[in-house]
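Let us practice reading a record.
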Amino acid sequence: MGSSGVKSQALTNAGTGQNMSSSLYGQANQAYGTLAPQLQSEITNPQGYTPAQKAAQNTAAQQSTGGSMAGAVGQGALQSARTRNAGGSNAAIAQSARTSGQNLSNAALQTETNNANLQQQQRQAGLSGLQSLYGTTLGGSENALGLSNQALGVANQATPSFWQQMAQTAGKDIIGTATGQKA
């Protein structure tokens, strides 16, 4: 294949790279237009747990605490019946009630802490998603333009054919004669 064929193919490849860049840019913009608002919403208003999920977690903690409190009261009543001392287990039942209240408070606090942590994770996922989306949007388009530039470099480095060299020499001679620069 002659140099004019190489140059022609290189120019065709450059056009293909530019078309590919435009196509990828359009596709990336379409994806960006769809995903960016969702990711932005995740950043500005992370949902965390739903109210039903938080209620279920709190209910589970309350049931656990209620069960342990009922067990303590039952054991206190059993101890009172065995020892025939009705006031002997009151202090243990009161301590169990205090401990159950503290455990319930800790569980509710942990639910809220977990919710805040989940919201922060969602916020970070949104930021990371936007960053990745932006990189993908530009990356493919820039790579295709790089291929176009490489093809143009090949086209510029291609040796002119015999007839192109003749035309260039003739053109230089005519211009030189017209401007008085060539004898």
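A brief commentary: The first helix runs from residue 3 to 44.
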